[in-house]
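Purpose: get a first structural picture of the assembly so the mutagenesis plan has something to point at.
Setup: two entries, given in the order below. No constraints added.
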Amino acid sequence: MTPANYKRIVLNSRPEGEIEPTTFRAETLPLDLKPGADEVLVQVTWMSLDPAMRSYIREKGGYMAPVKIGEVMRSNGLGVVVQAGSQTTHPVGQLVAGSFGWTEFALMKAAEVQTITVPKGAEPLDFLYTLGLSGLSAYFGLKKICDLKPGEKLVVSGAAGSVGSIACQLGKQAGATVYAIAGSQDKCDWLETELGADKAFNYKSPTFVEDFKKVGYVDVYFDNVGGDILDLVLSQLNKGARIALCGAISQYNASKPKGLQNYLSLISQRAKIEGFLIFDYAAEFPVAREELTKGLLDGSIKGKFHIVEGLEQAPSALSLLFSGGNTGKLVVKVSDEPKL
Amino acid sequence: MTPANYKRIVLNSRPEGEIEPTTFRAETLPLDLKPGADEVLVQVTWMSLDPAMRSYIREKGGYMAPVKIGEVMRSNGLGVVVQAGSQTTHPVGQLVAGSFGWTEFALMKAAEVQTITVPKGAEPLDFLYTLGLSGLSAYFGLKKICDLKPGEKLVVSGAAGSVGSIACQLGKQAGATVYAIAGSQDKCDWLETELGADKAFNYKSPTFVEDFKKVGYVDVYFDNVGGDILDLVLSQLNKGARIALCGAISQYNASKPKGLQNYLSLISQRAKIEGFLIFDYAAEFPVAREELTKGLLDGSIKGKFHIVEGLEQAPSALSLLFSGGNTGKLVVKVSDEPKL
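Result (structure tokens, whole complex):
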């Protein structure tokens, strides 16, 4: 019982700095999408909003090809198969995840969607957060780059975001002392009281720098923000410190990133900065998901969703990531799960 | 037959930027230094001048305590034991290396000087270059940080300096394609014709940036200079690239280092910047020296000394490092080896 038309949101123009009202444009199209033999038609239920999406709309992209003008905006999401090509094995009604984009319906190669089996006690939306790319980023960043040891001082920036909130909790599980950096007192309270951070710092506080200096030497820094906070942490590195560069949200809207001043400390402290992309660890996703699922079900990994309703809200919601307007995982609800 | 007086050079004032005529001051003192039971008196023959010495005279030092105002300037050197305390095992006449400072005579704890046995075919001065901290820095930087593999593209900056010149040659030995960056056409010629660099770039050339871009994606960068060249290389990283931060000579005179703009490429390229200090690998020095000695004796590792005569020339000679006035290893000849 699919509708006659569907909506999608395409890239209309490339913003110089912050996302503008003219950056995206909504389109309504007839729903005449027919899956080929190896394709499925997916009705999108949820969309994930992530900082890296800002890089997709640059002329010169980051690790992925830029979204072209007029193309559907790229994003991960959840959905349900509503029609399946003759050579596919996904049944109609199957819950799936994939890079569906900002659209109510997406025609996808069956090989490019992942079927999802929700563990008892979890919910589908967890596959956009703790069990999705956010949780996996926290997991592999700490595991592959940071080599975090019990008793070490771990700093996590963007700590109230989707990746940061998981990184804080995995850090506590690993026996580290966890210092969280976030952008409001409410977020700091949540990090300390709900997520177990030993101390949370509001970087918008006028005393932030002097407060943070009291942390002393940092062993591991899980960085989601880049910019000034990265530069500050560089001035407080312990010997052999490791910095995992997961993201640099403070810089994504900048046409020219603010330069790092304090990198010479990497020499005297024999320290490293290393970037990573979790796609490189895809073979290990099942093991990681198993551990993350365990934490989710036993309550040792908690989270919070910031839910925005309606596809057409996606552009303004995306800006929340850069203004610090969300706590936890920012998602857009596109539709209820269709009854098939 | 020691003289009645000796000269030394002490720190007189801390420079803001470049080293000034008032930064150091020469002193003449009576040579009444008597070694205690566990000490030796060393007559200094050669002094090594190194970029890191700029950090020793900052108020806030790098990896070592700053030299205090009025103290002898710290430097490594070679010398000969001219008097030995009753509980030392170094015979008078023994060739030694150590942190003697800018002085004609130094009273040293015997445990803090290294006896040197010059291999047949080598000379004492090699212990300030290929077999000294310069050669060891090149060796351990490449071995411990870079994990250089045959066929990879290696870039070395400060390539005509003491560390860089060895790094280029070890890179060739490891099977890499070596791109050298130096500050004059003469240096580039030397690197290409004598040291085997596949291509050398003069960073003072007006077409340097466009020329260097033709190198394409860089697998390993052995960085001695920091600053703009580091930022340029950051924009040309291959996936999984490794940058060994050995030094940042372009920034040592700066009160505020120039910021790195292009560090976000570390994420998309899954790359790292890592600093190192060779003192962490002291246990492996003998093995490294054995390999370096082999290269020195079979001619596969060459070098060039830039010799300045006379202790009193040390301050102005030190500035050569920062103006690019030296090719190869910069040393000061303080005295002939005493006949004892």
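The two ends of chain A are 8 Å apart (CA to CA).
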